[in-house]
Amino acid sequence: MLTAVLLIAPDPATAPLADALRSGLPANVQTGSSARDLLPLLRREDFGLILFDENTAAADPASAEALYRAAGTVPVLEMNFAICNADRVLREVRAALQRRRENEEKARTAAATTLGNELNGSLTGLLLESQLALRNAGPELSRSLHHLIELAAEMREKLRD
Fold first, then answer.
1. Full strand arrangement of the beta sheet holding 76-79
2. Which of 84, 23, 27, 87 is nearest to 52 (CA)?
3. What residue ranges do the domains of the chain occupy?
4. Which of 18, 26, 128, 130 has the fewest CB atoms within 10 Å, measured from its CB?
């Protein structure tokens, strides 16, 4: 799966670093030299990671702050490209993308577990209420309530799997 990476760095550093990322990752790398200029792009597109030169961030703190706010849940990896070689940047980017994938998977699992527990609780209540109603039901409702109990039990079994 192709991940979109936004690289914000001064022009001389951008091209070789972007090329290294493209060759070392399955990534669509978009570049720019100014956080302020890239804010509209960040709002329009979905990025897996923002790679931000820390000297560029320090030179314009207001734009850097705006970028962090606009990034939302997208991880921002701030590095000093003047002292980091492409191999180190690539390792850091891979690690950041892996952490993001793991965090997203954990969040999906937690959401599915929570939803399953809530649905299971509701189904248990439906089963109990249906069984109580069946005790007092006449023959005309008895068949419908039996069917309702079977359906609820079947749904609960599917949730357990």
1. 27-32, 3-8, 49-53, 76-79
2. 84
3. 3-110, 111-156
4. 26
Separation between Cα atoms, residue 77 and residue 21, nearest integer Å = 14
pLDDT of residue 128: 87
Domain 3-110 sits in CATH 3.30.420.10: no
Phi then psi for residue 50, to 5 deg, are -115, 125
Which residue reads 């980017």 in tokens? Answer: 93
Contact 53, 79 (CB under 8 A): yes
What is the residue whose two structure tokens read 């701030």?
A: 78
Strands 49-53 and 27-32: unpaired
pLDDT, average across residues 36-45: 91
Q: Which two tokens stand for residue 112?
A: 């599915």
The token duo for 144 is 């419908």
Long-range contacts of residues 148-155, Cβ cutoff 8 Å, at least 24 apart: 152/123, 152/126, 152/127, 153/127, 155/119, 155/123
